[in-house]
Amino acid sequence: MKTGRAWRVGIKDFLMMSGIRQRPHLKGPNWVIILVCLVSISLIGVYLYPPRNSAACYIFFSSSCSEPENTPAVPSRELTDEENAAHVVITEILKSTPVNSNNPKVAFMFLTPGRLPFEMLWDKFFQGHDGRFTVYVHASREQPAHTSPHFIGRNIRSDKVDWGKISMVDAERRLLMNALQDPDNQQFVLLSDSCVPLHHFDFVYNYLIFTNVSFIDCYDDPGPHGGGRYSEHMLPEVEYKDFRKGSQWFTMTRRHALLIMADSLYYKKFRLYCRPGMEGKNCYADEHYFPTLLHMVDPNGIANWSVTYVDWSERKWHPRSYKPPDITSKLLRNITGYEVSLHFTSDEKKTVLKTPCIWNGMQRPCFLFARKFYPETLDNLMQLFSNSTAF
Ligand SMILES: *[C@@H]1O[C@H](CO)[C@@H](O)[C@H](O)[C@H]1NC(C)=O
Ligand SMILES: *[C@@H]1O[C@H](CO)[C@@H](O)[C@H](O)[C@H]1NC(C)=O
Ligand SMILES: *[C@@H]1O[C@H](CO)[C@@H](O)[C@H](O)[C@H]1NC(C)=O
Ligand SMILES: *[C@@H]1O[C@H](CO)[C@@H](O)[C@H](O)[C@H]1NC(C)=O
């Protein structure tokens, strides 16, 4: 992620655009006739067999879709043993009361290609708080040599990560798997190599430990970069109406981390049908799997916003990336001042969805971490971090 996750979205969109351009050019009257026939056949089909699921409704705009669906969705096929097992385990995990540790810790899980440019800033952040946190590093390209004692020996066994592919989700699951082995870990924070803390440790710790929700970014984007990536192959388990989008940088409760370990059913659907090049579309599992799954099985257990700030307001192919001159106390006050999290939809309406950051009945600052920062901003950030009490 050195050249950056920032550019990843750019590449994604570029691929998508070229995908459109590469579509075969339909020429001549033969194609028109074939097309008309195909459309007629499918319209007759829809008339005779009205669609029952919302995904089909979305495509065909059938009148039968406006009727309220009161009956719960019944899987149209028999589940495999593996799938039944996933259902049973997920239900049990959600029913169980969380086990409280006497020494609750926050697990900081770093997903990086190699070096961590902000290691010294994090070192400062962790100083004096031993015993209240654990660090895990998944370095997918090269194992970084660490200088901070909080990072030395914390690289976990890693594997290659391809942006936008399921290997990204696999790396996240690998981090959770390692962090779950410490029974004191109660909240699991996923961070990238370009993330920095916005507050001192105590603030972050209290924010995350005294809550029972996962801070998972989750919203409904009806545009091509949201619902447009849905594939009907995900039926019957994942319906269009439940398909959600969100940035991958989550924090997760122990219960949800366990749930992710247990899930093979939904994971398999995303591995097979949410991938780049699926039916001519590019679906990125890391932006859809966690939000969709948790929205389906435990909607009240997630906050619907991420505590990691990223600036998409320019609506460009990549988010805003901060350079040394941008690093001022004004910028940090601006980011830490948000009490409403913004989501930008990709449809023509370009709606800005506003999620107030409320939990346990109180409106709070939304963000604990921010990205994405160029490595050269380290010195300026270190200075600010030393000077400020709030940051
Ligand atoms: C979290 O705690 C609040 C208040 O204690 C409670 O109302 C809510 O149901 C809990 N949520 C979950 C997902 O356990
Ligand atoms: C998150 O959004 C869902 C609806 O999508 C809602 O049911 C849930 O209550 C929200 N979570 C919180 C903590 O407000
Ligand atoms: C941060 O700055 C942006 C751009 O100047 C502004 O639109 C936004 O309202 C500010 N946010 C806060 C919380 O002050
Ligand atoms: C931090 O404080 C030092 C001295 O107290 C000062 O020289 C420096 O300019 C401050 N840095 C920032 C970024 O405010």
The geometry reads as: globular
Number of strands: 15
- What number of domains? 2
CATH architectural group of the largest domain: Alpha-Beta Complex
* Small molecules in complex: 2-acetamido-2-deoxy-beta-D-glucopyranose
CATH topology of the largest domain: Spore Coat Polysaccharide Biosynthesis Protein SpsA, Chain A
CATH class wording of the largest domain: Alpha Beta
Number of helices: 12
Q: Helix coverage percent of residues?
A: 25-40%
What number is the mean pLDDT?
A: 82
Low-confidence stretches: 1-28, 41-72
Instruction: Work out the strand percent.
Output: 5-15%
How many angstroms does the end-to-end distance come to? Answer: 25 Å
Order of helices and strands: HHHHEHEHEEHEEHHEEHEEHEEEEEH
Give the spatial strand order of the biggest sheet: 2-1-3-6
What is the SS-derived class?
A: alpha/beta
Radius of gyration: 22 Å
For the biggest sheet, the summary is: 4 strands, mixed
InterPro entries: BC10-like (IPR044174), Glyco_trans_14 (IPR003406)
Protein name: Glycosyltransferase
Subcellular location: Membrane
Membrane topology: Single-pass type II membrane protein
